[in-house]
Write a structure and sequence with these properties.
13% of the residues lie in helices and 21% in strands. The protein is an alpha+beta fold. The protein has a 5-stranded mixed β-sheet. The chain is globular.
Amino acid sequence: MTTITFIHPDNRSQTVEAEDGASVMLAALTHGVDGIVAECGGNAVCATCHVYVDEAWTSKLDPVTDDEDALLDGTAAERLPNSRLSCQLKVQPALAGLVIRIPDRQS
């Protein structure tokens, strides 16, 4: 299990234990983290699981794919340099302590 901390738009934090190999999106849904809508169920065809990865962690993630990049252009909240789709982020032990900020809106 890997620890992930979600920071809500009101700065409230919620720390969860995520199963390695799962997506950050699935970890959020499994633990009832508000703000991750995930309308497409993690199939990378919407953008309702948009999150901001804390800058300390961005270099530790796999690069953004072309498909993810295109979807990030259509997010409801502002796209920032650290924007990612949580369905595309795989939980792994190297990400223990990952900090994810949830945008103020998803749709």
